[in-house]
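ok so for the tutorial part 2 we go from a plain amino acid sequence to predicted structure tokens. step 1 is just haveing the sequence, like this:
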Amino acid sequence: MKKILLATGLVALMGTSAMAQQIGVSIARFDDNGLTVMRNGMTSHADTLDGVSLQVEDATDDVAKQLDQINNFVASGVDAIIVNAVDTNATEAMTAAAASAGVPLVYVNRQPINMDTLPDGQAFVASNEIESGTLKAFEICKNLRAAGKSGGATAYILMGQLSNQAAVQRTKDVEDVLGMDMCNFITVIDKQTAEWSRDKAQDLMTNWLSSGEPFDAVFANNDEMAIGAIQALKANGISMDAVQVGGVDATADALQAMKAGDLDVTVFQDLAGQGSGSIDTALKLINGEAVDKTVFIPFKLVTPDNVDEFIAN
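step 2 — the prediction. this is what the tokens look like for a chain of 313 residues:
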């Protein structure tokens, strides 16, 4: 009888082990507020799923380190890998490392350069970046027209890391909107990268202000840089009523800045949704289910008129 019970227990234990699914996750950097929201979305969702565990690593903005993490995940026998790429131009080696070992891979938030040639068993979960910069730029254009600036206005663009597809696309979105007949009264004085950083954006905005050239708007590729610009503007005694400032992400800090009357426009990027979506996509790939190569989580425009809806969430 004891042998039967022991055998039954071993079968049950083996069944539990077989069902357990280990997912390796490499995040570009842990000290980014937006990516922290995404990472928390992953871990919170995984906590609700039986038998799913995550091994989450910080790539510290180091491409070589991130590739090492992926190779280590493969060597340790994970069931799938999720990557938030440090450099979206360096994803081909990551794709090859996972594909050669037959390990499903999901890119999240940042579009890989080899998107068009991803092999079976790999996918991309994010939001459509064409929407983000377009929504922001068009809203600022409308606001400037409403303020009587249609005769001519000037602006600065704060760009993210230029190795990042989102930074390139969001900047192009703004430029495309400013090329439209309705918005071509806005001229860009300068555009430079502040690498997604609040502090670097504050320093860059301070340098621009030192020129003494008047301007009407700041288009920032993300909220952190928008907040940095706001800090520089306020430190230099510039009224936030006189300048339109827009970002992307609708982070908690950005929503509070909007409530305070400092930030005019942001775009809600459901980063937590991207995080949980990447887990669900990885599990489908593990189970051999059909998955679209691109899974988009929609962007939503946030203005002072609807900001309370996003704070409540």
